[in-house]
Amino acid sequence: MCEIEKSGYPHYMLKEIYEQPEVIKRTLKERLIPGSEGIVLDGIGLTQRELDGVHRMVIVACGTSYHAGLAGKYLIESLAGIPVEVEIASEFRYRSPAVDKNSLVIVISQSGETADTLDALRTAKGKGARVLAITNVVGSTIPREADYSIYTCAGPEVSVASTKAYTSQLIVIYLIALQLAYIKGGIGREVYRQMLEAVNRLPEQAQKMLDCSQSMKELAGKHKDIEKIVYLGRGLDYALALEGSLKFKETCYIHSAAYPGGEFRHGPIALVEEGLLVVLLATQDALIDKTLANLKEVKDRGAYVVALAKEGDGEVGKLADRVVYIPDIFDEFTSALAVIPLQLFAYYSAVARGRNVDRPRSLVKSVTD
Ligand code: M6R
Predict the structure, then answer these.
(1) Which of 131, 140, 193, 275 has the smallest C-beta neighbourhood within 10 Å, fewest atoms?
(2) Mean pLDDT for the chain overall
């Protein structure tokens, strides 16, 4: 891998984190054509009528793509009212999942070659389900075998730790959820318009989020000797907590766990001791009181809390040891912005520990067997 390909960045991971505003813009450009009525999803081969006929969905993926799928469940269920299950592909493929011709199965894969996801696709098709693939690599096996396909336009992702592929998967999921919600009457025309406008602002907001790079570097340096870390969140913030945690463990080789805030008191809170680093995601206005309760309970037990909150937040910033703000946007779309500080923190933590950032030990870019 020559230096030129890294465009002056020390690692592909950092380069790819910085590419995200452009990647979001590109992925949106393909689907939001100025002057056209709403979102253009026809290219995937699913007609409006077929979308309208979708009454149950199953999302199947691995790793980071699975985390994007979890976000999809929260969004599609809350906006469109369609039941969505999300399953890890290596579980789905080795059981007898209850899918049939009335199910729409969405498989998500950056590479389009992950063996478990490919086999899950074949399992679903074998049972008569229709399969929509969300992939990044054009011409890869998964979109070739799927009934319908949509590409994420992230460009080549070299770093084993996925960053820009995840945000572009989220963008596609946002658009699918919005379109389904509109078709199904889950949201009216005006909310649909406002939400589309909000999605269109994401590239510029993602660019602004990159300004936290230096403070994430300092934070990573300050905590470079920690031996464990906990990520907490509720709702969409839980899906994002899983992704932040995965990024940290795979790049730093440090034990990291993510919990839904409400589940914390059912066991994991026993882990909290003086100085434990807790990353608390507090971007969901609808859940803010509950999230604040989590913040207080970990602070009371001596944790050092780094929180992510929306600009204009009143309480989180007062209670947390450190807070990173994201713009005040719809709860539904916060993950595409809040993931950026999490990625940067994992990246700088790995650098501070002298890890092989782009090729962490024991990992490959695409798990094909
Ligand atoms: O290419 P895929 O999206 O199918 O890959 C899935 C996972 O192997 C991948 O996301 C993996 O978890 C990454 N190392 C995460 O950073």
Answers:
(1) 275
(2) 93
